[in-house]
């Protein structure tokens, strides 16, 4: 994965990170679009890198950890632009990150090549209640010859079910069904069901199952800090850099 540099901050040096595939997808879509996508709060100036309002920029809090797992995000066209999207956070943390915009009529050959790459063992993360039992597992096999690749449908629940039903290339991939012990902490958008986790929370559970404990912990901390920055900016509240979430995330900063 190519590298990208983030802007430097007072008393810090410029830090080099791997590329974020969701950010790249956003930039590609912007170039293709005939008119800009206007999300809620779009009038406020946002950091181009982290999408948070500039006064609450998140960039200096991006963690750096090593991961054996990879992630593949399947996104809708609108989801790529939403500043509240948490798939972006996963791509910030995981070096081997891939993102694709889903289309019912066109299949990206790069996606098919990724799913068939022999170095990866793909798992499609989806509720087991909607799938034939023989395809479902709740564990991740740690294979020394293959690395786990978690395929996450990053969309609303209604959209995710549609993508799942209409994507034949998922038919041969085992389904990883998660049983979360805690309800979602995601408060940036409304959900009709509190047991539905956001994409970042799902990914953190996947990494734990795969033995990427540090990545799972770093992503969970990063998600909490992102939520505080996002909601603080939305409600015009000052940042509490001494919060438990910020202090915990410091352990994953370079």
TrEMBL record:
<keyword id="KW-0949">S-adenosyl-L-methionine</keyword>
<protein>
    <recommendedName>
        <fullName>tRNA-uridine aminocarboxypropyltransferase</fullName>
        <ecNumber>2.5.1.25</ecNumber>
    </recommendedName>
</protein>
<keyword id="KW-0819">tRNA processing</keyword>
<dbReference type="Pfam" id="PF03942">
    <property type="entry name" value="DTW"/>
</dbReference>
<keyword id="KW-0808">Transferase</keyword>
<dbReference type="InterPro" id="IPR005636">
    <property type="entry name" value="DTW"/>
</dbReference>
<feature type="domain" description="DTW">
    <location>
        <begin position="43"/>
        <end position="235"/>
    </location>
</feature>
<dbReference type="InterPro" id="IPR039262">
    <property type="entry name" value="DTWD2/TAPT"/>
</dbReference>
């Amino acid at each position: 994965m190519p590298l990208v540099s983030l802007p430097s901050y007072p008393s810090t040096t410029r830090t080099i990170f791997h590329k974020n595939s969701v950010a790249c997808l956003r930039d590609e879509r912007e170039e293709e679009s005939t008119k800009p996508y206007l999300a809620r709060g779009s009038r406020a100036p946002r950091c181009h890198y982290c999408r948070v309002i500039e006064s609450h920029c998140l960039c200096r809090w991006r963690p750096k950890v090593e991961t054996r797992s990879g992630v593949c995000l399947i996104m809708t066209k609108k989801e790529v632009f939403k500043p509240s999207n948490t798939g972006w956070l996963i791509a910030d943390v995981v070096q081997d990150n891939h993102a694709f915009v889903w289309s019912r009529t066109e299949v990206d050959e790069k996606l098919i090549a990724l799913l068939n790459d022999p170095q990866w063992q793909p798992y499609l993360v989806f509720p087991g209640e909607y799938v034939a039992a023989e395809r479902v597992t709740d564990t991740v096999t740690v294979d020394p010859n293959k690395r786990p690749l978690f395929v996450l449908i990053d969309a609303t629940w209604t959209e995710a079910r549609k993508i799942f039903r209409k994507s034949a290339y998922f038919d041969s991939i085992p389904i990883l069904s998660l049983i979360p012990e805690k309800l979602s902490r995601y408060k940036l958008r409304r959900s009709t069901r509190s047991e539905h986790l956001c994409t970042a929370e799902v990914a953190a559970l996947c990494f734990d199952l795969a033995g990427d404990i540090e990545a799972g912990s770093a992503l969970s901390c990063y998600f909490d800090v992102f939520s505080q920055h996002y909601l603080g900016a939305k409600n015009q509240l000052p940042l509490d850099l001494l919060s438990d979430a910020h202090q915990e995330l410091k352990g994953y900063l370079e």
